[in-house]
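Homework-ish question, so no full write-ups if that breaks the rules, but can someone show me the predicted structure for this set?
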Amino acid sequence: MDKKIAIVGAGNLATRVSLELHLNGVEIIQVYSRTVTSALTLARMLGCNYVTNPEKITPDADIYLISVSDLAFSGLLEKVNFNNKLLAHTAGSIPMSELAKYSQNYGVFYPLQTFSKYRDVNFSRIPFCIEGNTPENEQDLMELARVLSKDVRVITSEQRKQLHLAAVFASNFVNHMYSIASELVAEKGLPFDILNPLISETASKVKSMTPRAAQTGPAMRKDQNIIQEHLNMLSGKPRMKKLYSSISDHIFEYHKLPRQTN
Amino acid sequence: MDKKIAIVGAGNLATRVSLELHLNGVEIIQVYSRTVTSALTLARMLGCNYVTNPEKITPDADIYLISVSDLAFSGLLEKVNFNNKLLAHTAGSIPMSELAKYSQNYGVFYPLQTFSKYRDVNFSRIPFCIEGNTPENEQDLMELARVLSKDVRVITSEQRKQLHLAAVFASNFVNHMYSIASELVAEKGLPFDILNPLISETASKVKSMTPRAAQTGPAMRKDQNIIQEHLNMLSGKPRMKKLYSSISDHIFEYHKLPRQTN
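A: Not a homework solution, just the prediction itself:
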């Protein structure tokens, strides 16, 4: 891969993806971030220069990877002259066509994974969802993705949007369930890691069974006594109680079980 | 372990725990289940006899493991003469003291894990939460648990009840999030396993960071545009939409972010 890359953004995803590209010998020539500290930190790790003014983004890159928050997206890009180079964003929910106004060559480079700045992650199995406005641009982005992963797919904007929504449930909301569990065990002086085998097994199960078949627990068993007891235990936490109730109701509904009345 | 065990129940947990005891050389002398098929299937795998009438439960066991639904619990046990042998239930939310009326020797043998009948699970790291009404009974149950796992702990009924509630969030509700994600990807012709690396990484992250620090996603980023777009995508699924909204709100609240109004 002899293309020169500029990284626009220095958040969780931009950091992990650019470091992994760098480790695999891809040349990163510049980092942009509006925050000096973020720009500097990432640029140092990559051994390249950085800018914090979008107007100073280099014109010399072959591919620009745009990884800024969806809110900052258009405000930022309209300030840059990309000179019709290949522009790819890394966002789940932004249609590829949004990039059309900034360059004649554009596409999407979306890794379906959760990234945190300082956590290393194994890239080799991450599905990279690629889209390009021309076969050549699609090819270039697939080639770049194959440097990082064995799982590179062409995914339409519509599919990617749905994947992003699914990922919110399968990852962001899941992690929030862990947060709640962590708070609950801490209240009784128990360490969070007592839940590790349960968390691992719950995630592993759905690799060999459907989530529908893997479902267990009081809501699945229609055990209203336990559900009621759990709601009582949460009476001092009305929002958490409401959440328990909504998700349990949704499990009933999803598994088409008749609600018990008592 | 030279104690003879009777298994009262033949559900997911009873099946996996008794098979694992059997594989480790513990003598299981009888299975009770009110369903002939369940009783027979499990008894065959264990090479022991079975009964479906609680009054015929053997008086010859040293330890009775009670693993029936919380609803069936008391109705069943009052029909059995346990001859003051050691009685232990495997339930998260039933206080140990509930067993006092059925024997002078009782305790709790609660593995903190999700079990499905036909899925093998690695027992060696499952936390076994043990409680006994006397030091001797506690010891006997700890000894039995140590046959299966390296992680055997004395946990009070109050702690166990809280662990069970935490486990509902960390496992049952998590699995339901997987169910929803699975439905969403299927709608766009995508295979569920495209989410595997994301699911694995989300579960692994919280082994080295707190769930609070691991949180990512639109709700965490206060990205109201994406949240609104996701809610629009769910407009044909009002219950799922409501769930998305409740969990996102709870993430805001938990991370003490001000709600944006728009």
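Now go work out the reasoning yourself. Hint: The first strand of chain A starts at residue 4 and ends at 8.
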